[in-house]
């Protein structure tokens, strides 16, 4: 079955002023849509068409070499954005509840300590990529970043994350340029005000109970 662009579940202007409607519309209906279209095109004629996006991303090393790059870029893009829309969906909890709150405190000392570490990951990602909060195999929390549309679910190929992602921030310029131009720090700061912590909790449950990350449902 072909992969599909998920509905946002909320209006493009629902996140203003933190993220403007035009950015959301282009980001979802153009950028994310293109990842889905290109992923489907790459998979056409392969025997991977029955695989879920989660299976594709987690099993990247088993994808035939000829289409592995396309699945990595476009499949990663589809996975990451599907997770991202849920993480900024309006109406959820504005702060984490246990055990996410406890995991953050144990790893970073406080919410401010977490924000500092996450902001650093987002700011030191040169060029395009993502910043992540994830749960490691030993249950502790960590922060890292990946390039392009890679994500920690891809394992070692994505870098040194070594975690299952429960929160991610798109730091590609297409995610913020219309409103923030070169001011990535302001965009990152705004993101903290719109995180849907209910979604983070759900991704935490998924990570700890199934060893999977966002977009694996
Ligand atoms: Mn994006």
Description:
This protein is mainly α and 217 residues long. It has a single domain (20-217), classed as minor pseudopilin epsh fold, CATH 3.55.40. 48% of the residues lie in helices and 11% in strands. The chain contains eight helices and three strands. The protein has helices at residues 21-43, 53-58, 65-87, 100-108, 111-124, 177-180, 184-194, 197-210; strands spanning 129-136, 141-147, 163-170. Strands 2-1-3 form a three-stranded antiparallel beta sheet. Helix 1 (21-43) runs antiparallel to helix 3, helix 4 packs across helix 5 (111-124) and helix 5 packs across helix 7. The two termini are 16 Å apart. The structure holds manganese (III) ion. Manganese (III) ion binds at residues 27, 31, 81, 170, 172, 174-175.
